[in-house]
Write a structure and sequence with these properties.
The chain contains eleven helices and two strands. It is mainly alpha-helical.
Length: 252
Protein backbone atom coordinates (compact mmCIF):
# COMPACT_ATOMS: atom_id res chain seq x y z
CA UNK A 1 0.00 0.00 0.00
CA UNK A 2 2.86 2.38 0.81
CA UNK A 3 6.07 3.17 -1.06
CA UNK A 4 9.64 3.64 0.10
CA UNK A 5 10.34 7.30 0.67
CA UNK A 6 13.26 9.67 0.24
CA UNK A 7 15.26 10.79 3.27
CA UNK A 8 14.40 14.48 3.04
CA UNK A 9 11.12 15.61 4.65
CA UNK A 10 10.55 12.04 5.84
CA UNK A 11 7.78 12.75 8.30
CA UNK A 12 5.83 14.90 5.84
CA UNK A 13 6.01 12.17 3.20
CA UNK A 14 4.74 9.51 5.59
CA UNK A 15 1.86 11.75 6.66
CA UNK A 16 1.06 12.54 3.03
CA UNK A 17 0.96 8.87 1.99
CA UNK A 18 -1.25 7.77 4.86
CA UNK A 19 -3.48 10.82 4.45
CA UNK A 20 -3.82 10.10 0.73
CA UNK A 21 -4.74 6.47 1.46
CA UNK A 22 -7.52 7.67 3.79
CA UNK A 23 -8.85 10.31 1.39
CA UNK A 24 -8.75 7.84 -1.52
CA UNK A 25 -10.83 5.36 0.47
CA UNK A 26 -8.09 2.76 0.74
CA UNK A 27 -8.34 3.21 4.51
CA UNK A 28 -11.65 3.87 6.27
CA UNK A 29 -12.59 4.78 9.86
CA UNK A 30 -12.07 1.69 11.99
CA UNK A 31 -9.38 0.20 9.78
CA UNK A 32 -6.14 -0.77 11.46
CA UNK A 33 -2.87 0.37 9.93
CA UNK A 34 -0.23 -2.29 9.22
CA UNK A 35 1.91 -3.21 12.21
CA UNK A 36 4.84 -1.04 13.20
CA UNK A 37 7.32 -3.55 11.79
CA UNK A 38 5.46 -3.73 8.49
CA UNK A 39 5.31 0.05 8.17
CA UNK A 40 9.01 0.37 8.96
CA UNK A 41 9.78 -2.07 6.15
CA UNK A 42 7.39 -0.48 3.64
CA UNK A 43 8.66 3.05 4.27
CA UNK A 44 12.28 1.92 4.84
CA UNK A 45 12.63 4.15 7.89
CA UNK A 46 13.51 3.82 11.57
CA UNK A 47 10.95 3.03 14.25
CA UNK A 48 11.59 6.39 15.87
CA UNK A 49 10.77 8.26 12.66
CA UNK A 50 7.62 6.19 12.17
CA UNK A 51 6.45 6.85 15.71
CA UNK A 52 6.98 10.58 15.27
CA UNK A 53 4.90 10.49 12.09
CA UNK A 54 2.11 8.49 13.71
CA UNK A 55 2.01 10.91 16.64
CA UNK A 56 1.63 13.78 14.17
CA UNK A 57 -1.25 11.97 12.45
CA UNK A 58 -2.84 11.39 15.84
CA UNK A 59 -2.63 15.10 16.64
CA UNK A 60 -4.27 15.80 13.29
CA UNK A 61 -7.16 13.60 14.36
CA UNK A 62 -6.71 11.07 11.54
CA UNK A 63 -5.69 8.07 13.66
CA UNK A 64 -5.77 6.91 17.26
CA UNK A 65 -3.44 4.52 19.03
CA UNK A 66 -4.70 1.66 21.16
CA UNK A 67 -2.59 -0.42 23.50
CA UNK A 68 -2.91 -4.00 24.62
CA UNK A 69 -4.19 -7.07 22.79
CA UNK A 70 -5.57 -6.04 19.43
CA UNK A 71 -3.98 -2.64 19.76
CA UNK A 72 -2.24 -0.56 17.15
CA UNK A 73 -2.99 2.52 15.07
CA UNK A 74 -6.55 2.87 13.78
CA UNK A 75 -8.09 5.28 11.29
CA UNK A 76 -10.79 7.47 12.84
CA UNK A 77 -13.27 10.02 11.55
CA UNK A 78 -11.90 13.49 12.13
CA UNK A 79 -13.54 15.11 15.14
CA UNK A 80 -15.23 18.52 14.74
CA UNK A 81 -13.40 19.88 17.79
CA UNK A 82 -10.01 19.09 16.26
CA UNK A 83 -11.09 20.61 12.95
CA UNK A 84 -12.19 23.82 14.66
CA UNK A 85 -8.93 23.96 16.58
CA UNK A 86 -7.05 23.71 13.28
CA UNK A 87 -9.11 26.61 11.90
CA UNK A 88 -8.40 28.60 15.04
CA UNK A 89 -4.67 28.01 14.64
CA UNK A 90 -4.85 29.21 11.03
CA UNK A 91 -6.95 32.32 11.64
CA UNK A 92 -4.97 33.26 14.74
CA UNK A 93 -2.32 34.67 12.39
CA UNK A 94 -4.77 36.32 9.95
CA UNK A 95 -6.02 39.24 12.06
CA UNK A 96 -9.55 37.83 12.12
CA UNK A 97 -11.87 40.40 13.72
CA UNK A 98 -15.41 40.74 15.05
CA UNK A 99 -16.28 42.51 11.81
CA UNK A 100 -15.08 39.45 9.85
CA UNK A 101 -17.04 37.06 12.05
CA UNK A 102 -20.20 39.14 11.75
CA UNK A 103 -19.86 39.20 7.98
CA UNK A 104 -19.75 35.40 7.89
CA UNK A 105 -22.75 35.20 10.19
CA UNK A 106 -24.74 37.61 7.99
CA UNK A 107 -23.98 35.46 4.94
CA UNK A 108 -24.91 32.15 6.57
CA UNK A 109 -27.40 32.50 9.41
CA UNK A 110 -30.26 34.52 7.85
CA UNK A 111 -30.36 31.97 5.01
CA UNK A 112 -30.37 29.14 7.56
CA UNK A 113 -33.25 30.75 9.47
CA UNK A 114 -35.27 31.16 6.28
CA UNK A 115 -34.71 27.52 5.37
CA UNK A 116 -35.61 26.46 8.91
CA UNK A 117 -38.93 28.28 8.62
CA UNK A 118 -39.66 26.29 5.47
CA UNK A 119 -38.48 22.87 6.59
CA UNK A 120 -38.28 22.58 10.39
CA UNK A 121 -40.63 20.03 11.97
CA UNK A 122 -42.98 20.97 14.79
CA UNK A 123 -40.82 18.91 17.17
CA UNK A 124 -37.67 20.79 16.21
CA UNK A 125 -39.47 24.13 16.49
CA UNK A 126 -40.41 23.13 20.02
CA UNK A 127 -36.71 22.50 20.72
CA UNK A 128 -35.99 26.13 19.81
CA UNK A 129 -38.66 27.30 22.24
CA UNK A 130 -37.31 25.05 25.00
CA UNK A 131 -33.72 26.24 24.46
CA UNK A 132 -34.71 29.88 24.77
CA UNK A 133 -36.84 29.15 27.85
CA UNK A 134 -33.95 27.25 29.40
CA UNK A 135 -31.55 30.13 28.73
CA UNK A 136 -33.94 32.55 30.46
CA UNK A 137 -34.11 30.29 33.52
CA UNK A 138 -30.33 30.15 33.65
CA UNK A 139 -30.17 33.95 33.52
CA UNK A 140 -32.47 34.20 36.52
CA UNK A 141 -30.23 31.74 38.33
CA UNK A 142 -27.16 33.80 37.38
CA UNK A 143 -25.79 30.83 35.46
CA UNK A 144 -24.17 32.75 32.62
CA UNK A 145 -22.28 29.89 30.98
CA UNK A 146 -25.34 27.61 30.86
CA UNK A 147 -27.40 30.41 29.30
CA UNK A 148 -24.72 30.95 26.65
CA UNK A 149 -24.65 27.20 25.92
CA UNK A 150 -28.41 27.24 25.29
CA UNK A 151 -28.08 30.33 23.13
CA UNK A 152 -25.45 28.71 20.94
CA UNK A 153 -27.44 25.47 20.77
CA UNK A 154 -30.36 27.41 19.28
CA UNK A 155 -28.17 28.79 16.50
CA UNK A 156 -26.74 25.33 15.88
CA UNK A 157 -30.21 23.79 15.69
CA UNK A 158 -31.23 26.33 13.06
CA UNK A 159 -28.04 25.83 11.03
CA UNK A 160 -28.58 22.06 11.05
CA UNK A 161 -31.70 22.56 8.96
CA UNK A 162 -29.47 23.21 5.96
CA UNK A 163 -28.20 19.60 6.13
CA UNK A 164 -24.90 21.11 5.06
CA UNK A 165 -21.97 20.04 7.26
CA UNK A 166 -19.82 22.91 5.97
CA UNK A 167 -22.35 25.51 7.06
CA UNK A 168 -22.80 23.84 10.45
CA UNK A 169 -19.04 23.66 11.02
CA UNK A 170 -18.47 27.30 10.05
CA UNK A 171 -21.34 28.46 12.22
CA UNK A 172 -20.12 26.46 15.23
CA UNK A 173 -16.58 27.77 14.72
CA UNK A 174 -17.74 31.38 14.62
CA UNK A 175 -20.02 30.93 17.64
CA UNK A 176 -17.19 29.31 19.65
CA UNK A 177 -14.95 32.31 19.02
CA UNK A 178 -17.75 34.74 19.88
CA UNK A 179 -18.11 33.06 23.27
CA UNK A 180 -14.51 33.97 24.00
CA UNK A 181 -15.00 37.51 22.68
CA UNK A 182 -17.98 37.87 25.06
CA UNK A 183 -15.79 36.81 27.98
CA UNK A 184 -13.15 39.37 27.07
CA UNK A 185 -15.73 42.13 26.61
CA UNK A 186 -17.53 41.00 29.79
CA UNK A 187 -20.92 40.78 28.13
CA UNK A 188 -23.39 40.66 31.02
CA UNK A 189 -26.85 39.42 31.84
CA UNK A 190 -28.60 42.55 30.50
CA UNK A 191 -26.99 42.13 27.09
CA UNK A 192 -27.80 38.44 27.09
CA UNK A 193 -31.46 39.21 27.81
CA UNK A 194 -31.52 41.40 24.69
CA UNK A 195 -30.06 38.51 22.69
CA UNK A 196 -32.78 36.16 23.95
CA UNK A 197 -35.49 38.69 23.07
CA UNK A 198 -34.18 38.61 19.51
CA UNK A 199 -34.22 34.82 19.66
CA UNK A 200 -37.91 34.97 20.62
CA UNK A 201 -38.63 36.89 17.42
CA UNK A 202 -36.62 34.43 15.33
CA UNK A 203 -38.41 31.50 16.94
CA UNK A 204 -41.84 33.06 16.31
CA UNK A 205 -41.04 33.64 12.63
CA UNK A 206 -39.85 30.05 12.20
CA UNK A 207 -42.91 28.74 14.08
CA UNK A 208 -45.15 30.76 11.76
CA UNK A 209 -43.24 29.31 8.77
CA UNK A 210 -42.52 32.83 7.58
CA UNK A 211 -39.17 32.47 5.82
CA UNK A 212 -38.71 36.11 4.88
CA UNK A 213 -39.46 37.27 8.42
CA UNK A 214 -37.10 34.66 9.87
CA UNK A 215 -34.38 35.88 7.48
CA UNK A 216 -34.87 39.52 8.46
CA UNK A 217 -35.12 38.82 12.20
CA UNK A 218 -31.88 36.84 12.15
CA UNK A 219 -30.10 39.52 10.12
CA UNK A 220 -31.33 42.27 12.44
CA UNK A 221 -30.21 40.22 15.44
CA UNK A 222 -26.67 39.81 14.12
CA UNK A 223 -26.38 43.46 13.05
CA UNK A 224 -27.70 44.73 16.39
CA UNK A 225 -25.33 42.48 18.30
CA UNK A 226 -22.37 43.72 16.30
CA UNK A 227 -23.39 47.34 16.75
CA UNK A 228 -24.36 47.34 20.44
CA UNK A 229 -21.75 45.03 21.89
CA UNK A 230 -18.67 45.48 19.75
CA UNK A 231 -18.78 48.87 18.03
CA UNK A 232 -15.56 49.99 19.68
CA UNK A 233 -13.87 46.61 19.54
CA UNK A 234 -15.06 45.12 16.25
CA UNK A 235 -11.57 45.32 14.76
CA UNK A 236 -9.94 43.56 17.72
CA UNK A 237 -8.09 40.62 16.22
CA UNK A 238 -8.28 37.01 17.29
CA UNK A 239 -4.66 37.20 18.43
CA UNK A 240 -5.47 40.19 20.64
CA UNK A 241 -8.48 38.41 22.16
CA UNK A 242 -6.49 35.34 23.14
CA UNK A 243 -3.73 37.51 24.53
CA UNK A 244 -6.33 38.65 27.07
CA UNK A 245 -7.57 35.22 28.09
CA UNK A 246 -6.30 31.68 28.54
CA UNK A 247 -9.75 30.14 28.86
CA UNK A 248 -10.16 28.69 25.38
CA UNK A 249 -11.98 25.37 25.63
CA UNK A 250 -10.21 22.82 23.45
CA UNK A 251 -13.15 20.41 23.84
CA UNK A 252 -15.67 22.70 22.11
Amino acid sequence: MFAEIQQNTITQQIIRQIHTAIIAGKLSPGDKLPSENDLVKQFAISKQTLRESLRALEHMGLIESKKGTGGGSFVIEVDAAITKLGLLNYFYFKNLSIKDLSMVRKLIEPFSAKLAAQTMSDEDVMVLKELNASAKKHIKADNYEAAIADEIALHTKIAEQTNNPLIVLLMEFVEDILVDYKKVFQVGIDELEVILQAHDKIYEAIKDKDGDRAFNEMLSHIEALEESLWTKEKNLSLKEVYSKTTTYNYNK
